[in-house]
Each structure stands twice: as structure tokens, then as C-alpha cells.
Amino acid sequence: QVQLVESGGGLVQPGGSLNLSCAASGSIFAIKAMGWYRQAPGKKRESVAALRTRGGSTNYADSVKGRFSISKDNAKNTVYLQMNSLKPEDTAVYYCNADLWVVVGGSSSYWGQGTQVTVSS
Q1: Higher-scoring residue by pLDDT: 74, 50
Q2: Which pLDDT score is estimated for 85?
Q3: What is the dihedral of CA 107, 69, 7, 85, to 10 degrees?
Q4: Over the chain, what is the mean pLDDT?
Q5: What is the 3-state secondary structure (H, E, C) of the chain?
Q6: Do 52 and 44 contact (CB within 8 A), yes or no?
Q7: Spatial CB neighbours of 53, under 8 Å, sequence gap ≥ 6
Q8: Residues 6 or more apart whose Cβ sits within 8 Å of residue 100
Q9: Local confidence band at 5 (pLDDT 50, 70, 90 cut-offs)
């Protein structure tokens, strides 16, 4: 069993900042990559940022480049998303995702429960 627990969402004014965190726990052998997705009402879930454990390469959606930053604490199996200069269009439920190998069972992708981010004045 693997669990991803997210925290850090909330209500913020335009131009403000939030820092999301996602901690992975359970029967984890190794993590290949972790990332953040978001889904706004009536829209498809989209990738926001991703970070690969080996090499540390990162990818960002064009809409968040220069404003969001993803980082990871390997010792804690925790990924963070620092969100700056937030805009109303960033409002969505943010989901953590992890691609990892479990102790028994091979490789799979796991999702967190989601955390609401609302950008509004």
C-alpha cells in the first residue's frame, strides 16, 4: 500500500503565494518521479510540474513557468510546489502524482486525494 498525502492548499489573493506539499509513504522501494496536476471545474486534469528523481530534471506547463517551482526532499519522499504570483486562472484542485516501484508488485502510478487552491480577491 502506498499513500500520498497533500497539504498546503487554501484561499489566496491574486499575486499571492502558496506552497503545496505531498508526502509519499508505504511500501515504497524507489520513486521514479513525482509531480503535480490540477483540474479546474469543467476542465480536464492537466500536468503542472514534474520532477524525475534520477537526474533531477523538471518540467513545467507553459502557463506556470517562471511562477511555480517544484522540489523534492528525497529523505522524506516529499515533493513541494512553490506557487508565486498566483492568478485566478490557477484556481483548481491540485493533485500529487508519484511513479514508483513498490516493495512487492513492480511499478505503478499513485495519486493523492487533492487539495483545493482558490485564487480570488
Answers
A1: 50
A2: 98
A3: -150
A4: 95
A5: CEEEEEECCEEECCCCCEEEEEEEEECEEEEEEEEEEEECCCCCCEEEEEEECCCCCEEECCCCCCCEEEEEEHHHCEEEEEECCCCHHHCEEEEEEEEEEECCCEEEEEECCCEEEEECC
A6: no
A7: 30, 31, 32, 33, 34, 72, 74
A8: 2, 24, 28, 29, 30, 31, 32, 107, 108, 110
A9: very high
Q: What are the pLDDT digits (tens) for 80-107?
A: 999 999 999 999 999 999 999 898 878 8
**Which residue type sits at 60?**
Y
Distances (CA, A) of 47 to 1, 61, 63, 76, 91: 24, 7, 10, 23, 14
